[in-house]
Amino acid sequence: MAKYNPVKVEAKWREIWEKNKTDSVDLDKAKKPFYNLMMFPYPSAEGLHVGNVFAFVGSDIQGRHKRLLGYDVFEPMGFDAFGMHSENFALKTGRHPARMVPKNIVHFREDQLKKMGLGLDWDHQVDTTSSDYYRWTQWMFVTLYKNGFAHKAKGQVNWCPGCKTVLAKEQVIEDKCERCSSVVEKRDMEQWYFKTTAFAEELLTKLDDLDWSERTKLAQRAWIGKSEGADVVFKLENGEEVTVFTTRPDTLFGATYMVFSPEHPLLDAITAPEREEELGKYRTEARAMSDADLGNDKREKTGVFTGAYAINPANGKRIPVWAADYVLMGYGTGAIMAVPAHDERDFEFAKKFGLEIVEVVTPPPGTPGVGETAYAGDGFLANSGPFDGLPAKTEGARRIVETLAAKGAAKFVTRYRLRDWCVSRQRYWGPPIPIIYCDKCGVVPVPEKDLPVELPFMEDFRPDGSGHSPLHGNEEFYRTTCPECGGPAVRETDVSDNFLCSAWYFYRYPSTDFDDRPFDPARTKKWLPVDLYVGGNEHAVLHLLYSRWLCKALHKAGHIDFDEPYKKFVAHGIIVKDGAKMSKSKGNIINPDDYVNEFGADAFRVYLMFMGAYLEGGDFRDGGVKAMKSFLDRLATAVSPGAGPLSDEPPTGSALLYVLHSTIKAVGSDIDRFSYNTAISRIMELVNHATKNKIRSREVSSVIIRLISPFAPHLAEELWEELGNRESVFKSSWPEHKEEHLARPEVEYVVQVNGKLRDRVNLAVGLSNEEIDEKVMNSPAVLKWIEGKELVKKIYVPDKLINLVVK
RNA sequence: GCGAGAGUGGCGGAAUUGGCAGACGCACCGGCCUUAGGAGCCGGCGGUCGAACAGACUGUGGGGGUUCAAGUCCCCCCUCUCGCACCA
How does pLDDT run across A528-587, given as a tens digit for each residue? Predict the structure, then answer.
């Protein structure tokens, strides 16, 4: 077999694998379970994106490698088909998601995924829109509710006018809807929340022990946003009290004014009558502004004096209270003590409005004075009464807080930026929130026996922007009876965020054959937590954070005995096309089908993995897939008995054995560290070596086939069969390298003079310095550079290099 | 602004601990084979000087430093990508 026809060969193996269930695993009998998870896609009408293929292939290589290493690999796939992506597309094209999604799923699975050579176990797929699945999504909701992790609350929410629903904070990117890019508005609404903040500290500290991509952990840490400081109570002159949060309680004596967020509820009560008009205007303007505008720290500070005064609890001074939009309602208490001498924002504000600036931390000599800028560093306290001279951030902060704490006016606190997860969506295409409202019994979760709460088919599913889901207008759905008292009741009509569906799907895969429980305890014990999860880092603070949180909640509720869902998470890179991001408008979208049909899935897979570092991403160039097809042809020619007889004698010759065994070793470790591009290049070198030296050996062929098999499974299988094997190559074993062949009798020494390469000499390994000298010092190429010069020093790097330093 | 990562031939990219820069591939050039080639095989390929597959110099964003030796370590600067961003 020289040139092979990928279309025929791949179809043949697809059929055999499916028939023999090569990629299925016996979930109960498996001895060395390895749960290899990839992020299930949403089955869009556009079809599988090349980014999906890149992610899946990179994950599949791990799965196949592990299989060859003797693990029982479980590699399932499913469809994340609920949610606004599907629904928005349906709205745009005038098709109903309930009709469109099943077709998309079939297309994804039969025409695309199955042609990619992924070793997927299709006996355990999930579809989040099927009631067998979302029944348990609803069970999750009820379970969370019963354990105090779900509650309904009124508050400010992010409203997307495009999608006509509220969004979670995580789904607002730079002030825009993650799905439709509309600018998000603030609204006050009553919504369902999951208590993500309950595990803020655990979500943060547990990151330290996780074997995850560092950048993913970094993103989660930043999002959780822990900050330690103190709450301090300020009394207002009208008798009201207001608490502020500060990370710098040591600077309390320097607090010369207070600032309230324009949205602060206490403003109405404290504003002096003569200031009301101006303040009202300011608050209206601020309300109209988007979060992005408010969050822009380059914008000039604005603010209005309220006419009210507060008392600084540290020194009893009377300080003015201002309202300014640089204080955000969404963080801390919505009010701050302003210390212009030691905070840049306060400094800028104080300068603009002529407010007092008092330095209470002495900067080290040479630091610009307080007149010019704020000093945020550490130092010793000054102008701070009894605390003068104390080291500010440590002893000073402690003593000041303790002193005030005695009067109940301060305490150390830790705050997080993380907010509770807003999960209600005023949309149609999602799992209905399983809650019933009864006048007599109040909020009643739907009992487990009544699940699922089926999503009724509605021809018109358009969101109307009323603040209710379209389900609200469906009387048959909306009106129900109370499961507790049997009286008339109404259903919650919002559906839950699609991210709830995806927060738990990996518990379901091993248990899809149970219809009376979301996940079977024994199966779960055997297979979870997930051994390896490969996916995009864009989900760092969405899916990955939500699913970690849900895991902790389920753990706390006693449903599972672990509290982290993924042992290892690897964030793959992003593919660009010719150096630019792919986008529909640029017309540079890669359609995987085109390449698979022309060059085969194997060539496409190998190219995707070869074009760049998997963890960094890569630059897709059109010619690449073809080049990989010809590499696979060359490989086939080199190893196939069809292209010329193979010798049954074991390979000999130290050069060949060295190349063979060092390649085995390198490819294995490259796969382990996701360095697929170098792994492939090592296989290329081995193939080149075999071709060039006309090596035709059964054993060499067997090694090469197994090394390439995780990358090009169909071709490997075909060649493996040609070699006379009856069982799948994936039932064989990963080749083992022998250290003895890596030891070379002779190595090439680099001879440097003053660090410059001047000669190369082949020498036996393990020579003494004297023996090296003998061989090296008389070489004409070296003599030329050292003759007549004083030899100052000789540096020996064993079996590698000698550097002669001359003057 | 803060945090992280990156900057290497015409191009994609290698270089795990400081030790031969440019592996592997694309493109290109030369040769062989061919009725033909968007096929295959052999060879070349950072730059400058040079007749040269002789040799030398130079070269990993820019500048400085440490070292026998720097793409790799340290300091300053520039550019790009990503994350967070008036978070008190």
Answer: 999 999 999 999 999 999 999 999 999 999 999 999 999 999 999 999 988 888 887 777
- Asked if the model's pLDDT at residue A606 lies above 90, the reply is yes
Report which of A746, A733, A749 is spatially closest to residue A798, judged by C-alpha positions.
A749
**pLDDT band for position A762 (50/70/90)?**
confident
Report pLDDT for A581.
84
* Backbone φ, ψ for residue A481 (5° rounding): -115, 150
Residues A666, A675: Cα–Cα separation, whole Å: 10
CA–C1' A680–B27 (A): 20
Residues 700-719 of A with CB under 7 A from strand B: none
Q: Nearest 5°: phi and psi at A627? A: -60, -35
> A611 to each of A495, A589, A633, A684, how far by Cα in Å?
42, 17, 18, 14
Distance CA(A58)–CA(A633), nearest Å, equals: 22
Identity of the amino acid at A521: P
| Lookup: nucleotide whose C1' is closest to A620 CA | B12
State pTM to two decimals. Answer: 0.94
DSSP state of A538: G
Residue A691 CB lies within 7 Å of the nucleic strand B: yes
Q: Which residue is nearest to nucleotide B82 (CA to C1')?
A: A215
Percent of chain A predicted with pLDDT > 70: 98
CA distances from A642 to A164, A416, A473, A636 (A): 63, 66, 69, 9
Determine whether the distance from the CB of A318 to the nearest atom of strand B is below 7 Å. no
- In whole angstroms, what is the distance from residue A53 CA to residue A74 CA? 19
Classify residue A737 by burial, with Cβ atoms within 10 Å: 0-12, 13-18, 19+.
Answer: middle
Q: Could you report the per-residue pLDDT of A311-368, keeping only the tens digit for each?
A: 999 999 999 999 999 998 888 899 999 999 999 899 999 999 999 999 999 887 766 6
Q: CA A645, CA A81: separation in Å to the nearest integer?
A: 52
ipTM of the complex: 0.94
By C-alpha distance, which of A578, A634, A573, A636 is closest to A609? Answer: A573
List of residues 6+ apart from A641 with CB closer than 8 A: A698, A701, A722, A723
A55 in Cβ contact with A94 (< 8 Å): no
Using a 10 angstrom Cβ sphere, with 0-12 exposed, 13-18 middle and 19 or more buried, the burial of residue A28 is exposed
Strand B closer than 7 Å to the CB of A796?
A: no
